Amino acid sequence: MTVVRRVMVGVAGFILAAAAVPAVARAQGVEAHLQPEARVDLLAGAITAVHAGVGVNIPVGYYARVGLVGAAGARLSGDAGASARVDAIARFLFDPFFEKRWGLSAGGGVSVRYDEGAGWRPFLAVVVDLEPPGRGPVIPAVQVGVGGGVRVGIALRKRDGRRR
User: Fold this and answer.
1) Which pLDDT does position 50 carry in this prediction?
2) pTM of the model as a whole
3) Which residues contact 29 (CB under 8 A, 6 or more apart)?
4) Ramachandran assignment for 121, one of left (phi > 0), alpha (psi -120 to 50 degrees), beta (any other)
C-alpha cells in the first residue's frame, strides 16, 4: 500500500471517528451545533501556497472542537500551479464560554496536501488559534502553526450562542 493510500485511509478513519463526535458530545450534555467556517491560509515551506477554504467545527464536549476543512488555491513558489488540502484538526479551547476577552485554543491533527507536480502528501499539523474580542454573528480567528511548512491563516466562524 502506497504512502498516499495509507494517509487517505487514515484521514477517512479520522473523518469517520469525527462523525461519532456529536454522540460523544450529547453523552456529556453538550448540544453538538456544527460551526461553519471560512478561511484563507498561507502555507510557507518547500512549496509555498495560498488557500481559501471552508469547513465545519464539531463540538466534542465543552472544551474541544474537531475541525474538518477543505481548501484550494495556487502555488506561489516555483512553477505556478494548483494546490489543495484537506485538514482534520482537533483543538482544545481554553475559554469556551467567553469569560475572557481573547480566546485561545491549541490543537493538532492531519493534513493531506496536493501540489501540482508534487502530488498528494501527508503532514501532521499543530496549530494555535487566537480569537480577538468582538460581538456579532461571526467570530474571527488568527491561526498559526506548522504542517507542511509554516501556516498562517485567518478564519471566520459562526458564533454559537454563548460558546466559542
Assistant:
1) 97
2) 0.80
3) none
4) beta
* pLDDT at position 28: 53
Render pLDDT for 145-157 as a digit per residue (tens, 0 to 9).
999 899 999 999 9
Buried b (16+ CB within 10 A) or exposed e, 1-29: eeeeeebbeebeebeeebeebbebbeeee
- Separation of CA 139 from chain center: 15
d(CA 97, CA 92): 13
Q: Are 125 and 91 in contact (CB under 8 A)?
A: no
What length is written for the chain? Answer: 164
H or E element at residue 65: strand 64-75
Task: Report the mean per-residue pLDDT for the chain.
Answer: 86
